[in-house]
Design brief:
Elements (H helix, E strand, L loop, with lengths): L1 E3 L3 E6 L2 E5 L1 H15 L1 H4 L1 H19 L15 E7 L14 E6 L2 E5 L5 H7 L7 E5 L11 H10 L6 E5 L3 H11 L1 H9 L10 E5 L3 E5 L4 E6 L18 E6 L4 E4 L7 H6 L5 E4 L4 H11 L7 H13 L4 H11 L3 E4 L13 H8 L5 E4 L4 E2 L1
Parallel strand pairs: 6-7, 7-8, 8-9, 13-14, 14-15, 15-16
Antiparallel strand pairs: 1-2, 2-3, 4-5, 4-17, 5-6, 10-11, 11-12, 12-13
Helix pairs in contact: 1-3, 11-12
Length: 371
């Protein structure tokens, strides 16, 4: 018998190794006990008990053991830009922000915007193989696909827990997704599902610094400048936005996420093989909003606040080039591309703007592009 910190142990059954998920077993017992008490405490109490039990078990388990190389997997590091669209407005060709980093066959998901599960499948990967998720910040265009990924993994029998890392607010977001999926889960339990959904997910609200390490990657986070909340506003001091650096045996890949100009991001990206940034031309975005009527629907105060958001909490293509040049990265990958008035926009002007400051390779990413 061999214990695994990832939530189980392996035993020999009829001469073959079998994985036993003790984390799920503990949660199953918790669920059965909770259901026996439902008549006394009510449905909401049962749901709260299950979520609380999941968090208690997660706290007891702590960090996972180092991941092993997948037998037969192609060695090395591959990046697939699953979703390259920026902002909450849906567009026809670009899913919302998400990236899949594959290292020696192990899969690491960075952000989970809308349509992420379908894009994982379209990339040739099995969505059940995604065991580590890193969220840069809790904006909807970086998280809306997380619930679909969660329920899909549970529905299709992933056994090992999925670890979700991110800044403050991620725990509430995941718990909200579980609550949203509770109606479906209750129906599935009646149809024969036996494992409670909450037992499959472990949330890690992390601070800047080293946030994860295994045999394939070391992940470092810094706080960037995407959030500038007014003092006294509800999110002030509560939520943060991160950028991540992934160091693998053969490459360094940095995901800026969303950010304004940031010295911390420049230092994080120092010498990286790939720097995945965002970029926005404000006039393009405003014109697109005017075309669909949403700009006119804003009050003058809301328009002013939106302009501050675009100019201070995002970067232009020129600033992307400046960051890449200062950090001495090898390749600049421009992603998180905003909606424009051109339905088949090639964003060549973004490359031209960044080239004024960066002499290295520049690529405007498309969905399912591989690096």
């Amino acid at each position: 018998m061999r214990w695994l910190l990832s939530g189980g142990f392996k035993i020999l059954v009829a001469g073959k190794q079998r994985y036993v998920d003790w984390h799920a077993a503990v949660m199953a017992k918790a669920y059965n006990a909770a259901m026996r008490s439902e008549a006394a405490f009510g449905v909401l109490a049962v749901h709260g008990f299950l979520i609380g039990a999941a968090l208690v078990v997660t706290a007891c388990i702590g960090q996972v053991a180092p991941s092993l190389k997948i037998p037969g997997a192609t060695p090395g590091t591959r990046l697939i830009t699953l979703g390259t669209g920026g902002g909450p407005l849906p567009t026809k060709d670009r899913a919302q922000s998400s990236n899949l980093l594959i290292v020696n066959g192990a899969r690491y998901l960075i952000d989970a915007g809308d349509n992420v599960t379908r894009r994982i499948v379209q990339s040739g990967s099995d969505f059940r193989q995604v065991g580590k998720v890193f969220i840069t910040h809790p904006h909807s265009d970086h998280t809306m696909g997380l619930a679909t990924l969660m329920v899909s993994a549970w529905e299709f029998q992933r056994l090992e827990p999925i670890d979700i890392y991110g800044p403050p607010g991620i725990e509430a977001l995941v718990n909200g997704a579980l609550q949203y999926l509770t109606v479906n889960a209750e129906i599935r339990w009646a149809e024969g599902k036996i494992s409670p959904m909450a037992g499959l997910f472990r949330v890690h609200e992390v601070r800047p610094g080293l946030v994860f390490h295994d045999n394939n990657v070391s992940v470092t986070a810094v706080e960037n400048t995407h959030f500038h909340f007014p003092v006294g506003s509800p999110p002030y001091g509560k939520y943060k936005s991160y950028s991540y650096r992934f160091e693998t045996p053969d490459r360094v890949v940095v995901f800026m996420g969303d950010s304004g100009p940031s010295e911390a991001v420049i230092e994080l990206a120092r010498g990286a093989d790939l720097l995945v940034t965002e970029g926005v031309l404000v006039d393009d975005v405003v014109e697109a909003l005017k075309r669909n009527g949403s700009w006119q629907a804003k009050t003058p105060g809301a328009q002013k606040s939106w302009m501050v958001h675009l100019t201070e909490e995002h970067i232009t293509p020129e600033e992307s080039g400046k960051i890449a040049e200062k950090a001495r990265v090898k390749t600049l990958v421009m992603s998180h591309l905003p909606p424009t008035v051109h339905p088949d926009d090639d964003f060549q002007r973004y490359i031209d703007a960044a080239k004024r400051y960066f002499s290295g390779r520049i690529v405007v990413a498309k969905d399912l592009m591989e690096f």
